[in-house]
Amino acid sequence: MSWSLVHCKVNPSSSNSAKAPAVEVLKVTQYIHMGPFLNLQPRVLWRNLMGMVLPYSVLKRSLLFLCFIILGSCHENNLKEKYTTLFAGNAMTIDYRVIIGKKLTSQEAESVKEAISEIFESINTTFNNWNPNSELSKLNQLKSNVTVPISLELNAVLKQTDDIVNLTNGLFDPTMEPLHKLWKEHLEKGEIPTTAQIKNISLAIGWNKIHLIGQNFYKSDDRTAIDLGGIVKGHCVDLLIEKLNELGFPDVLVEWGGEIRTTGAHPEGRPWTVFVSGLGSLNPDKAIAKIEMNDLALATSGDYLQNWTVIENEHEITYFHIINPLLKRPLRTTEDSIASASVATTTCALADAIATTLMLFPTLNEAKQWVKGIQPGAPLRCWIATRKKSEYVETSSQAIEHK
Questions:
Q1: Which of the listed residues 22, 105, 141, 342 has the most CB atoms within 10 Å of its CB?
Q2: Greatest mean pLDDT range, 68-77, 94-103, 283-292, 390-399
């Protein structure tokens, strides 16, 4: 894991306009390499574009919905310097940002650094499918009907996953990994797996193959494998927020790979502000939504991470990485298919899972009707987009400014 610490001072503006806030980066106070995960490579942590400060991760290729974290400007007559402290780095190949709404002492900075390190290490050793020694990887390697005890953290996330599976009537299904692997192997060769191959591996698919009894786990098929990528990134953001609050930092913004959660307020005393932007525009005046992040979480899922184009029945078809559990096929990228879904709610884990599920619907209207009909136990605000249009759906009376 690598990280750096930057103290940022809010830059006094010569105008009261909120359209072009800016942040002045004063200096890098620490630049530290931690652990064996990744080598730290110097890079631009923040870029000022059109008068706006953007997290580095929003500039990644093909991201359709971009989250703009605007640290803002303060009034000229406010002589007190207002700082945010930024910890930035990379964990498990994904960039993260942790922003504390104050300037930290060296002791406080050390406590934040340790908390970040401990939580990412826990996520890596418990949930990381790419780590062959993680607890989840070992469960995936189990033979059928072999019962083993599992950790409290993994058990809690699996139970939360079970709730999401039931809420979505099985649309959110973390056992798609064997089917995803089959399709990926063939699509990378420009091929489609045979019906027989799909049918065979589908026998290992389904959340009903997973069994939790107290703190014990077993599965019904040797080949069944769990991928919690649709919820764990959000879960990690939740853990970071909760830990930093426990350490006495109430004003915090955490972002990991585009998943965001905030508590407290910006140093100016206003909410943390996030813009959700549509395809092809970084202009805040054209943003789909401006969100006042009052103790709120935001997650986005989209069809831009992995895609493959193949010839099928003499037609060129583009598939992307999310598998439809009903059809046992990856989703297709079309003008009318859902390109991106952003969800705001109380926890990042829930937002992550709902955003992933919204991607599975063939049309925008079907996605809207589904999210209006569920009862997740928390208010939801959703921005769902195709390549033609985007729409906003709200399942509570609390409004968010949107277009």
A1: 342
A2: 94-103
In this prediction the pTM is 0.80
Q: To the nearest whole number, what is the mean pLDDT of the chain?
A: 79
Please, which residues have CB within 8 angstroms of residue 322's CB and are 6 or more apart in sequence?
A: 301, 303, 330, 331, 356, 359, 360
Which residue, among 382, 373, 376, 378, has the nearest Cα to 355 in the 3D structure?
382
Secondary structure, 3-state, 78-95: CCCCCEEEEEEEEECCEE
Between CA 388 and CA 395, with CA 389 as vertex, the angle to 5 degrees is: 150
Helical pair 106-127 and 152-167, crossing angle rounded to 10 deg: 70
Residue 367 CB contacts under 8 Å (≥ 6 apart), including other chains? 338, 341, 358, 361, 384
Topology adopted by domain 141-219 = T-fold (1.10.3980)
For residue 402, what is the DSSP state?
A: B
390-394 and 381-385 as β-strands: parallel, antiparallel, unpaired? antiparallel
What is the SS3 assignment for 190?
coil
Please, is 142 exposed, middle or buried when counting C-beta atoms within 10 Å of its C-beta (0-12, 13-18, 19+)? middle
d(Cα 180, Cα 183) in Å, to the nearest integer? 5
The tens digit of pLDDT for each residue in 341-378 reads 999 999 999 999 999 999 999 899 999 999 999 989 89
Q: Characterize 63-94 residue by residue with b for buried, 16 or more Cβ atoms within 10 angstroms of its Cβ, and e for exposed.
A: bbbbbbbbbbbbeeeeeeebbbbbbbbbbbee
* Secondary structure letter of residue 266 according to DSSP: -
* Among 282, 274, 267, 277, residue whose Cα is nearest residue 348: 274
Q: In the Cβ-directed half-sphere of 183, how many Cα atoms lie within 13 Å?
A: 27
Give pLDDT tens digits for 146-169: 999 999 999 999 999 999 999 999
- How many Å apart are CA 3 and CA 45, to the nearest integer? 11
With beta carbons less than 8 A apart as the criterion, state whether 259 and 234 touch.
yes
Q: In what order do the strands lie in the sheet with 289-293?
A: 66-70, 272-277, 289-293
Q: What average pLDDT does this structure show over 61-77?
A: 35
> So where are the chain's domains?
141-219
387 CB contacts (<8 Å, ≥6 apart)?
279, 334, 335, 336, 337, 339
Phi-psi region of 3 (alpha: psi -120 to 50; beta: other; left: phi over 0): beta
pLDDT, tens only, 10-20? 433 333 333 22
